[in-house]
Each structure stands twice: as structure tokens, then as C-alpha cells.
């Protein structure tokens, strides 16, 4: 989203940069600190060692003192709770390395001692993958935030894994480039976490996922070996592409410490359209018209239902530029010739309105107005947690069935939910289904799961589109992966992490 490159990020994201403010944020939204994960979900602690004082002393020797070894309850509580407030561990120590060598030394020691480890970036994940389940040692990569190189000629960025995505966007923009990844949490999420979860985001329709953009990674294995898989070339056909083992593995096969990523040239011409539509069918047909009419300049295509927009405008005191409609679409174009792009966009909108697909809309290329329109979409996720608790489902669905699940869930949960909403990246078939309620209850949980995943499986969708599996979806992975695939994944985990210490209880079902 090139329009945001010089615009300050919203306050809620800035607050989340300091993860220790998490409990204060929960209190400010009148949300309870969640129950321990082991009390809320059926999960059994693995046969790992417990951290002792001698272990802490060893960590202090590796990190050069106690300043980067956090032990006080008030200092580490935020590292134990996820952003949604859905899971909570009870780790007693948080380590903050600054280099790959320190990470390697920590992992070598933890593997010898059979101490379970939870790697953590910005802790903005939505599936419980970035916080401990029990008492795992948390390795926070917050201090590994060096940008080593930005090559404006090749478009290659090399940086440590703890760099904040929003910071990287600003730095590459200064070189006339653009990050191929854009997320609502870019003010606090880390690029290493993004790559570890193969995050999707708002630009995927234009630039594809991170498996295509990431050229190389450096990662530390469970045994403390440093895997230098860095590359500065898009074409590097030298045997097995081992970097792909770490992209999307959510810290279960290794800890990404450095990476190189290709950043395209920034577009000179950006336009944003915000449209009102009467039905989902109109949304679907408008998307098809946009693909045909806008072609190569289409960079984002988002769908928002009425309840999602109402939540965003209400909780953040925003104003929609058009009247109320059952559905909205946010379409962005990015190109190199303003006159050409405006003509294509004008022809597309004129045709869509003549055909009765689009009932109302506004178009702008003015930076402030574009920023305000994008705010309507980007703040939805934060707004929906203000009702108390929010069950969030990130799924891929065929476009013909894209919105049906929202209606099905709305009927199923009835008055137990404050609201059931759907929005997301229709450009890549990714729906964000949200069920807001006053608080987490077993009753509504049992109504939603496994129903949502069974429904998704029945239409041959994916139980996770871009947020990963983490802890919350492990037992539902079977709905998207065949037994043969699960077996191979388990064999890879056993080979690369024989003691099972790397982010245990995540991704793979417990056996």
C-alpha cells in the first residue's frame, strides 16, 4: 500500500510496539486477563525440564549479564499473553539476544538441558503461536533489529528478524522501493515473525506470498546450528530450497534470525476507490470486473460487510465517505502513469455502475483521503475486540461460498454473539470471520469449533489462509492436510528437532 509510506501509524499500533502495555490495553478495553491456556484448553505438558537458577545464570553468561534476562513477573507478563487475550502461558524467563551467535548458544544449551523454547517477535499473532503454552523459555527477537543493506538497484533488503515491518517500509520507501507485504499490525509486527508464519496481507494480490518474495534466510536449529541460507538473487537453483522449510513453519523447525527479501519499485500513481454494493453477488461480480478492467494495476481488493464497517467507525470515531450499504469494497490501483490509470479506473467504475453492480462510491488519489479510507479497513480487527472477546477465523474459501459461512455462523450462535462479521481479501479468497461476544465461554466455543473448520473443509477451503496454525488450530489441521502430509511433517519435525523443544504444542497435532 504505497499511499501509507509517509503517514504516521495509528496510536493503537504504536502502543502495541511496547509489549508490556498489553495488560494495560486489556484493562482499558474492560477485557479480563485470560485464563491459563492449560485451564482453558485440553493440553498436556511435554516431558521437558524446568528452568532452574543455574539455567538463568547460564543465560546471563551468554547474554553478558542480567539486563537482557527478564525474570520479574511485571516484566514478563506481556510476553506470556497473546494479542487477542485468548491464551496465556507462565514462562518465568524471557531472553533478549542481539545476535545470531547468541541465539545459537541459547539453543545449544536449551537442547542439552531439554528446555522448551518459544520464539517471539512482535507478538501480534492471532492463533496463539507466539506465546508459551506452559513454562517455555521465551526468546524475544526485539533487539535483533538491524538493517544491514537496502540495494536500490536490485531491490534487495537484508535485515535481522526483529525489524518492525513499518520501519522497514519507511526505509525502503526512502529508496524508491516498496515492501511486498503490508499488514494492519505493521507498527509492531516483526519481519521474522511475518516470514515464519508466511503472512499474507493487503498486497498479496499484486506481489504474491512470502515464499516468492523472500530470497534467503538465516536460521538457528534446535541443536544450535546456524543455517546460512542467505541469497541475494531471485534465481538460485542449487538443489533443495531449504529456506522454504523455515518460511511458514512458525518457529517449530528453527528460529529465523536474518533474511533477504525482494522489494519492488514503488508505484508513481496510486488511486483508491471505496464502493457501496447491495449483495455479496454484486461484490463477487465487481471483483471479476476489476480483474478484467484494471488488470496489471490492481494492487488490492478488499470486501467489508456492513457490521464490520459499523464497528470500525463506531469504536474509532471514523466517518465513512459514502452512505450505508450491506457491503463495501476497497479497491486500490498502483501504476506508473496517472492519466492511464485514472482512465482505466474511470471506465471500470462507470461500467460497474451502469450494470447495477456498484450503487455508490468515491475515488481519490489525495494522500490524506486515501489514508482515511484505508483506516476504515485496517482498524476493523482492533475494533471487534472491544466487545470483550472475539473469536477470529482466518480461512480461504471458494468465491462462490465466500460469505455463506458468515450467515451460517450468525444463525448458529444467535444471541450468544454481540456480532458476527466477515471482511477480508477477496482478491485472494481470504475471509476474516469474526464472532464478538462479551467473554469467552465454553458454550459458544463448542458451537464454533469444529463447525467452522468442518464447513470450510466441506467446500474444500483452507483452515488457515495467512495467520498460520499456531496453538489454536493444531487439532484442525487435519481438515486441510491429508494423513500422508501430516506424517511427513511429523518426520521433518523429528529430524530437525529430535527433542521437540522448538515451539512445542504448535502447528502439529499432539500425539
UniProtKB/TrEMBL annotation:
Cofactor(s) named in the record: FAD
One protein family per Pfam: FAD-oxidase_C
Localization of this protein: Peroxisome
The FAD-binding PCMH-type domain, residue ranges: 87-266
Tagged with keyword Transcription regulation: no
Swiss-Prot/TrEMBL keywords: FAD, Flavoprotein, Oxidoreductase, Peroxisome
Catalytic reaction equation(s): (R)-malate + A = oxaloacetate + AH2
PROSITE patterns: FAD_PCMH (PS51387)
E.C. no: 1.1.99.39
InterPro entries assigned: FAD-bd_oxidored_4_C, FAD-bd_PCMH, FAD-bd_PCMH-like_sf, FAD-bd_PCMH_sub1, FAD-bd_PCMH_sub2, FAD-linked_Oxase-like_C, FAD-oxidored/transferase_4, Oxid_FAD_bind_N
Enzyme class at the top of the EC tree: oxidoreductase
Function of the molecule: Catalyzes the oxidation of D-2-hydroxyglutarate (D-2-HG) to alpha-ketoglutarate. Also catalyzes the oxidation of other D-2-hydroxyacids, such as D-malate (D-MAL) and D-lactate (D-LAC). Exhibits high activities towards D-2-HG and D-MAL but a very weak activity towards D-LAC.
Subunit structure: Homodimer.
UniProt name for this protein: D-2-hydroxyglutarate dehydrogenase, mitochondrial
Amino acid at each position: 500500500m504505497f499511499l501509507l509510506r509517509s503517514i504516521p501509524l495509528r496510536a493503537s499500533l504504536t502502543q502495541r510496539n511496547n509489549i508490556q502495555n498489553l495488560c494495560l490495553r486489556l484493562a482499558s478495553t474492560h477485557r479480563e486477563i485470560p485464563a491459563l491456556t492449560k485451564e482453558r484448553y485440553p493440553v498436556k505438558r511435554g516431558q521437558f525440564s524446568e528452568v532452574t537458577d543455574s539455567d538463568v545464570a547460564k543465560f546471563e553468561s551468554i547474554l553478558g549479564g542480567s539486563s537482557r534476562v527478564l525474570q520479574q513477573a511485571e516484566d514478563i507478563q506481556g510476553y506470556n499473553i497473546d494479542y487477542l487475550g485468548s491464551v496465556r502461558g507462565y514462562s518465568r524467563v524471557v531472553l533478549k539476544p542481539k545476535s545470531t551467535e547468541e541465539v545459537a548458544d541459547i539453543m545449544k544449551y536449551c537442547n542439552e538441558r531439554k528446555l522448551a523454547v518459544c520464539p517471539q517477535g512482535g507478538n501480534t499473532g492471532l492463533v496463539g503461536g507466539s506465546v508459551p503454552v506452559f513454562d517455555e523459555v521465551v526468546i524475544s527477537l526485539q533487539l535483533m533489529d538491524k538493517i544491514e543493506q537496502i540495494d536500490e538497484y536490485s531491490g534487495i533488503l537484508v535485515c535481522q528478524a526483529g525489524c518492525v515491518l513499518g520501519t522497514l517500509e519507511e526505509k525502503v520507501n526512502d529508496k524508491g522501493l516498496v515492501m511486498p507485504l503490508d499488514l494492519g499490525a505493521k507498527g509492531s509486527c516483526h519481519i521474522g515473525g511475518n516470514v515464519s508464519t508466511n503472512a499474507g496481507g493487503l498486497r498479496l494480490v499484486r506481489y504474491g506470498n512470502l515464499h516468492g518474495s523472500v530470497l534467503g534466510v538465516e536460521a538457528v536449529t534446535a541443536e544450535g546450528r546456524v543455517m546460512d541460507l542467505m541469497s541475494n538473487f531471485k534465481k538460485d537453483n542449487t538443489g533443495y530450497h531449504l529456506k522454504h522449510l523455515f518460511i511458514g513453519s512458525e518457529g517449530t523447525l528453527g528460529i529465523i534470525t536474518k533474511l533477504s527479501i525482494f522489494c519492488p519499485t514503488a508505484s508513481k500513481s496510486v488511486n483508491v476507490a471505496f464502493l457501496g454494493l447491495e449483495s455479496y453477488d454484486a461484490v463477487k461480480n465487481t471483483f471479476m470486473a476489476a480483474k478484467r478492467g484494471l488488470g496489471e494495476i490492481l494492487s488490492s481488493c478488499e470486501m467489508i460487510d456492513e457490521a464490520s464497517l459499523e464497528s470500525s467507525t463506531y469504536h474509532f470515531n471514523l466517518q465513512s465517505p459514502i452512505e450505508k450499504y450491506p457491503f463495501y469494497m476497497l479497491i486500490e490501483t498502483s501504476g506508473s502513469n496517472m492519466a492511464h490509470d485514472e482512465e482505466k479506473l474511470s471506465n471500470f467504475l462507470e461500467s460497474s455502475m451502469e450494470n447495477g453492480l456498484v450503487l455508490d462510491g468515491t475515488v481519490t488519489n489525495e494522500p490524506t483521503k486515501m489514508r482515511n479510507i484505508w483506516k476504515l479497513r485496517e482498524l476493523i480487527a482492533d475494533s471487534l475486540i472491544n466487545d470483550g472477546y472475539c473469536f477470529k477465523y482466518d480461512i480461504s474459501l471458494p468465491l462462490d461460498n465466500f460469505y455463506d459461512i458468515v450467515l451460517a455462523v450468525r444463525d448458529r450462535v444467535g444471541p450468544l454473539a454481540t456480532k458476527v462479521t466477515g471482511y477480508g481479501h477477496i482478491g485472494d479468497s481470504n475471509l476474516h470471520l469474526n464472532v464478538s461476544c462479551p467473554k469467552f465461554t465454553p458454550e459458544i466455543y463448542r458451537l464454533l469449533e469444529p463447525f467452522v473448520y468442518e464447513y470450510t473443509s466441506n467446500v474444500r477451503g483452507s483452515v488457515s489462509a495467512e495467520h498460520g496454525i499456531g496453538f489454536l488450530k493444531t487439532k484442525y489441521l487435519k481438515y486441510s492436510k491429508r494423513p500422508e502430509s501430516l506424517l511427513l511433517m511429523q518426520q521433518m519435525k523429528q529430524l530437525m528437532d529430535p527433542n521437540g523443544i522448538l515451539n512445542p504444542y504448535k502447528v502439529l497435532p499432539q500425539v
